[in-house]
């Protein structure tokens, strides 16, 4: 595997050089994920305990229905955990690959956005763990509980738990997406304000499409989407809108 060399904005690289750099960064990312998976699998008991913590005491003994299900469920949970742990490193490799395409001025403008992506993802996962999952579990396990003998299957619960955390991390990327669209002049602050009610509807639809079919999860996931949208407008007005003098230097999508 070739060592990755720093690439400057004015360097002229062939297609083979670009593909070679991309291959190297993909290999680095896969190796990091593999190492993270090995560590997570080594500490799988602690990870499973953390994942089961939102459950009531009477439901923490999850059931399996096949001889291989306990092993495969543990592997699946460790894969999700490794992806969450590796997200900042993978983001760095992606950003490092595309940054040479930007001029120093453009790089200075987008660098704050790129740095916040891993941080927002982690914050979203924490929000999902401490707010969304406990509320959803409490609602679902107590809904018509007198009519059902509720037993939780390990595979379904851990899949629900992992997907909810990943969805929470993705939801919190909304400000970065909106700021990027504003910086690229695809959207403006005025358009964001004018179409606020349509944006609210889209946020509700996104919340309904995220993991968690119960109304409590949908409501809890809708609230941060709306808050993040309003925060995005404030950030776009403060730092996202291209300055007057720079507008002529930033190509517009419509102009292309």
Q: What does this 3D model show about the protein?
A:
By secondary structure, the protein is mainly α. The protein has one domain. The protein is built from nine helices and no strands. The C terminus is likely disordered.
How are the secondary structure elements laid out?
Layout lengths: L14 H28 L1 H9 L16 H30 L5 H39 L11 H18 L2 H10 L5 H6 L1 H14 L5 H26 L16
Helix pairs in contact: 1-3, 3-4, 3-5, 4-5, 4-6, 4-9, 6-9, 8-9
**Terminal CA distance:** 38 Å
Taking Cα atoms only, what radius of gyration do you get, to the nearest Å? 22 Å
Query: What's the helix count?
Result: 9
Total number of domains = 1
The largest sheet is:
none
Structural class, from secondary structure content? Answer: mainly alpha
Percent helix range: over 70%
Query: N-to-C SSE series?
Result: HHHHHHHHH
Mean pLDDT: 78
Q: Tally the beta strands.
A: 0
Task: Give the low-confidence spans.
Answer: 245-256
Give the strand content: under 5%
List the defining traits of the structure above.
256 residues; mainly alpha
Task: Put the structure in a nutshell.
This protein is mostly helical and 256 residues long.
């Amino acid at each position: 595997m070739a060592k990755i060399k720093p690439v400057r904005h004015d360097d002229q690289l062939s297609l083979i050089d670009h593909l070679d750099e991309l291959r190297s960064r993909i290999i680095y990312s896969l190796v990091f994920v593999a190492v993270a998976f090995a560590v997570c699998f080594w500490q799988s008991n602690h990870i499973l305990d953390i994942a089961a913590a939102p459950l009531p005491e009477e439901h923490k003994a999850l059931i399996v229905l096949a001889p291989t299900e306990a092993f495969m469920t543990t592997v699946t949970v460790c894969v999700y955990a490794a992806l969450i742990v590796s997200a900042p490193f993978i983001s760095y490799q992606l950003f490092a690959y595309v940054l040479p395409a930007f001029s120093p001025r453009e790089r200075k403008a987008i660098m704050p956005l790129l740095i916040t992506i891993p941080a927002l993802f982690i914050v979203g996962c924490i929000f999902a763990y401490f707010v969304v999952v406990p509320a959803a579990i409490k609602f679902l396990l107590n809904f018509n509980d007198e009519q059902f003998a509720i037993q939780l299957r390990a595979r379904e619960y851990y899949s629900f738990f992992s997907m909810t955390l990943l969805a929470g991390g993705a939801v919190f990327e909304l400000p970065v997406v909106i700021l990027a669209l504003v910086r690229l002049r695809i959207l403006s602050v005025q358009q964001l304000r004018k179409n606020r009610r349509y944006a609210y509807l889209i946020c509700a639809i996104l919340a309904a499409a995220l993991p968690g079919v119960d109304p409590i999860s949908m409501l809890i996931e809708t609230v941060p989407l709306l808050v993040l949208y309003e925060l995005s407008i404030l950030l776009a007005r403060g730092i996202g809108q291209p300055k007057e003098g720079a507008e002529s230097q930033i190509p517009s999508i419509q102009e292309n």
